[in-house]
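Issue: ligand-bound run for magnesium ion - logging full I/O for the record.

Environment: standard queue, default settings, no custom constraints.

Inputs:
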Amino acid sequence: MSAATPFAPHAAPGIAAATVDLSKFYGSGDTRVVALDQVSVDFREGEFTAIMGPSGCGKSTLMHCAAGLDSPSSGSVRIGTTELSTLGDRQLTALRRDRIGFIFQAFNLLPTLTALENITLPPTIAGRRPDQQWLDRVITMVGLSQRLGHRPAQLSGGQQQRVAIARALASRPQIIFGDEPTGNLDSRAGADILGFLRDSVRELGRTVVMVTHDPVAACYADRVVFLSDGRLVDEMTHVTPDRVLGLMKSLGARAHTG
Ligand code: ADP
Ligand code: MG
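Outputs:
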């Protein structure tokens, strides 16, 4: 199988996803919460970005809005050059299915299906045959070739999350979003998953956006953006745990290192 990627990830620095002045409010009157306050951020093609900040600062909300899972109160979201607000429900569903992958903290696998059936479920539901060469490459990358017939209960947490990564990559999405994808794993299994997310960028040319509260996990990213009280407050490249911890402390966060 050829190792060539269809494009050089760093050659054309296009934008995989972007928000402009994105705000999100929940509730009204006395109970109104400003979850996001005019956040403008770009996620570039072929880049691995981590989103960090204190609990409740809006990380999940930003990711859900950027991924078209939740709608903005104001402002806009683009996936590639597509403005999400211009899409109807069916178009939005198709865009999420074809161009976006998700990985959640709880692996969200179907217990009665095998690893392979879980991985190929989204294209199967859409009535499509997955690209076999691509699928082989993804499965090899996450090291699941010998586990494809196992059901989730027969797999470790780390292996289940590898299935979830392969499932997120199966439809060749441009961009993969992960909300604390290593949050339920021990540090060794977590390191594997972070390595595979980085490989998705380096080897498969994808874009990855990951929410994490772990400064060590953040170091797998090319760039970290920091949120506080629903606002984008800082950004870091050349990520090290010490630099991340310093910034988190200055944001008043209690950084967990688990
Ligand atoms: P984080 O992921 O950084 O912990 P969230 O994005 O989950 O933060 O939440 C940001 C803020 O919005 C918090 O104050 C949270 O309580 C509030 N929030 C999130 N989802 C809802 C919701 N469905 N209804 C009301 N408030 C919400
Ligand atoms: Mg969250």
